[in-house]
Amino acid sequence: MNQPQVTTGDKTGKEQAPAVVMQNVSFSFSGTRIFENLNFSIPGGQWTCLLGPSGSGKSTLLRIISGSLAKVTGIVRFEGIGRHQRMTAWMAQKDLLLPWLTVEENVLLGARLRGEINETKRSRARALIDAAGLAGYEEELPAALSGGMRQRAALLRTLMEDRPVILMDEPFSALDALTRLKLQDLAADLVAGATVLLVTHDPLEALRLGNRIHVMTGQPATIGQALIPESLPPRRPDDPAVAGLHAALLDRLMGNGP
Amino acid sequence: MRWVRLGVLVAGLILIWQMTVMISGAPSYILPGPFRVMRALITHPGVLFGHALVTGMEIVAGLVIGTVFGAASALFMIAFKPAKRWLFPVLVISQAIPVFALAPLLVLWLGYGAGSKIAMAVLIIFFPVTAAFYDGLRRTDPEWLELARVMDASPGAILRHVRIPAALPAFASGLRVATAVAPIGAVVGEWVGASKGLGFYMLHANARMQIDLMFAALVVLAILALTLYFSVDRIMTRLVYWQTEDLDP
Lengths: 258, 249
Known about the structure:
By secondary structure, chain A is an alpha/beta fold. Chain A is about 30% helix and about 20% strand. Chain A is globular, with a radius of gyration of 18 Å.
């Protein structure tokens, strides 16, 4: 199995993470046109945040990129890296940990499903578990963990996939405020170098984590121009960029502005 | 606590039984009291044990075979979608025919031995196991499936690592129901035609007006069925170890 040499945790590998380019993408679901001739690109190696009201098709966009939807027309291209099969990893709002597997086995789920479990993977998983502050919980079942810890395990499972593009579907939205802040920092740290598309309905989260922030509205959905804060993520909640752009972002979400 | 409760329950039932005998004044060849039945139990241990062994073997064999067939057909219907459309109606029809009506036929075809009784038990068990396991397999959280697909898992790997474990709790409850009804199959088979087993012995004792012995056989059958049920229940609880049960204080 020839894996692409992309290590999501490695900050020097930044230039290798591909950009995602969508051209004339259309998709309808039971008669509703969700996207029509959508053009959208995500630069490689950065966090792009996509904000939008519920039901605007944010999750659908992620599914289109991951290739798990049928009947999509148009082109989705990964640029800047050789073609290989495994491009995207997925992290959802629900942790989706399998309740019968231990934390370590859950982190290794992808390898287990592909029959690729070996000692290298195991030690990598253990290192990640340590880095995420879950040491000592390797052998526990998910039921023994708090919501924040479970979502951390889900993050590690996503990282273990070693994919250059990481799609996140509101992964922090079910957590309490403090846990969310901690997990956002951990994610920003561990994922650095990969191309990330984070879908969220929380403007503050987008402002903390995004190199670029887009707002998606309408039906069929359109994606507005990028809002690019000057400082680099992850930003502290008291970062002037966060406070300053919050109002502008809310404005765009309400449907005013570019 | 559990054992205390069981003890109180049994003692209460025996008390009601004894009271009924005393109040109704029924003769012992109609309704023997608990002590008479106890005496029958103590004086005929070998015979009862021998017949219980036969019936127990039939039930266990029926359970094993029925479970294997049931689980296999559930998997088959999940793995090959068209199979479901053909197999499921057959399953439902098989349930619409009362298994009691089939008993004489099964004895005719499979003889007086254990074969026809095992077949009866299998017929009774098959449906609850198949239906429960199939339902469990079908109801796998679609997000788990999507996650597994994004991870490039083959359908076989998804079945093995996601769908089957996810369906085990449903399978376990199906098997619990099956275990509770399995003795019916074996005993009805024995009533229709047999030379061994508790069902046969009950008819035999009844015909000779040994009602106390018939009740003794009934008690042994109840103990056998309960033991079996609680053993299976225990195994199932271990099998779905991740499901935390509300334990009694």
